[in-house]
Amino acid sequence: MRAGVIDIGSDTIRLLIGEEAGQSIHIVESLQNTLPIGRSTFLKGRISQDMINQTIGILEKYKEILKQYEVQKIKAVATTAVREAGNKNIFLDTIKRKTGLEIEVLNVGDVVFYIDSYLSFSLEKTYPVHEKNLLIAELGGGSLDVSVMRKGFTLMNVGLSIGTMRLQQLLNQIGGSREESSEALKECIENEFVYLSKSIPRIQLDDVVLINENYFYFQNLLPEKKAALDFFQLTKAETQNILKELSGKSPETISTNYKIPLAIAETLEAYATILQQFLVLASKNYIYILQTSLSEAILASLLSGLEVSKKYDKANQLIAVATNLCHRYNLDLNHAKHVAQLSEKLFAYLKGHLGLQDQDSLYLILAAYLHDIGIFVNNRSHHKHSEYIISSLNLFRLTDEEIKMIACIARYHRKATPAKTHFLYGSLPSESQILIQKLSSILRIANALDSTHRQKVKNVEFEVEGTGDIMIKAHVQDNFLVERVDFFEKKDLFEEITGNKIRLLLKE
Q1: Closest Cα to residue 110, out of 38, 14, 7, 194?
Q2: Which has the minimum average pLDDT: 82-91, 394-403, 469-478, 492-501?
């Protein structure tokens, strides 16, 4: 079977076609067209019409090639330059109408999902990815995407605005001498790493792994360095030597002296400076560079059906991210977990009464973990602060709309109920608004049952009465008066949605 991947990046559009070859993948065609979409997005905030037209022309040619190779599976993706474009939706709609191709816009979490699956597959016998605490980064034209993984679980995803194209645009704008430009470049990168250092979970990192398909050009700068089979291991001293070699030299000189394509030569100083910052950040003597690409990782997923095990599936990855956010924002993790557990049990029983689907439970559970995150700003009106913080998060493999829904569900865990006058809620489509109401009604009840943050509910059972009303039998310990009052205040939304009463019976 053959599969094809089209990757619309910040400065190139790429086509990769491969087929299964035993336990490996054979690349039968690899094409690349230079098209700096990011130049338009990063300077003007929009993809120009000329860029859209050129993209269509390239994609039409790729479609013909895919047809010639009789490719059965096709996946088209786009990253930072499309994701950040103000006219993203127009771009995607135009591409679909003119070429028939549906483009999936990947966020940082999506990129890491494919890379991590590919790493665990390709390095299964040589490097136990899921037994390590890793910082994994991919440097593209638009951004530096960074993830921290603890034994296979994602703790953090963040995209830094220091992609190679962005940095080159910055240097072109500021002008100055070669020395001044190098200093400005270093300052810009250092500023982003200051933010990154504050965001990284406080765990002991085993290794730093940088994904890049052009690492072998460093060998031209380090002629005595031998290439490794799986990884290119670059030490702190070697990184310093590379920076010294590049210092004061123009991209044209670097290209000529070291036989490196000019397009790559223009990015090497930024690349080496970023490597140096990673070594400082992680307090490591070396960094691993793996020669691969996002396109290759997606291709492997299509051909080999690469899927991480149930242990590392999307839901568990997101719960790991949410748990880390609880630590980062100094939340009451015991309360968050307890409300999430109660929410899950309530959902399992009440989903039929509310017309919910199994996949909706993930939104509820994440909102349960994060509903108090706004306390980090101020306890007063913290539900509103929770909505703002959650809506600005980069959550593993979730769309912007899904994140907004979770933010709204978390907001309505207190007294106020959803209203179209609320900006975020009002910006969502009606079907999402209805889902928010239903899931919020469950979260309000779950949160009420632990309103004192003391985890007094040890178990819950349910019973439907002859009238269709619902009885919650809560096995509790200690005084439950505060929780009981809160339950009666918070159950109204559920009763309004379902038309049935919900009662509480306390049992020891």
Answers
A1: 7
A2: 394-403
Backbone angles phi and psi of 10, in degrees to 5: -75, -30
Q: Residue 180 corresponds to which tokens in the numbers above?
A: 């001044």
| Residue 306 reports pLDDT greater than 60 | no
For 116-184, the DSSP string reads: HHHHHHHTTTT--GGGSEEEEEEE-SS-EEEEEEETTEEEEEEEES--HHHHHHHHHHH---HHHHHHH
Cα 480 to Cα 491: distance, rounded to the nearest angstrom = 16
CA nearest neighbour of 9 among 140, 112, 103, 109? 140
Query: What is the pLDDT at residue 486?
Result: 96
Instruction: State residue 223 phi and psi, 5-degree precision.
Output: -60, -25
State pTM to two decimals.
Answer: 0.83
The answer to whether the Cα torsion of 45, 50, 56, 59 is positive or negative is: negative
Highest mean pLDDT among 200-209, 299-308, 355-364: 355-364
The span from the CA of 425 to the CA of 436, in Å, is: 8
State the DSSP code for 226: P
**pLDDT, tens only, 239-292:** 888 888 888 888 899 999 989 988 888 888 888 899 999 999 988 888 988 878
Taken in order of first residue, the domains within the chain and their CATH numbers are 2-105 (3.30.420.40), 109-304 (3.30.420.150), 313-507 (1.10.3210.10)
Structure tokens at 121: 């597959």
What is the sign of the dihedral through the CA atoms of 397, 403, 405 and 408?
A: positive
Instruction: Label each residue of 252-268 as H, E or C.
Output: HHHHHHHCCCHHHHHHH
Q: Tokens 């509103």 label which residue?
A: 384
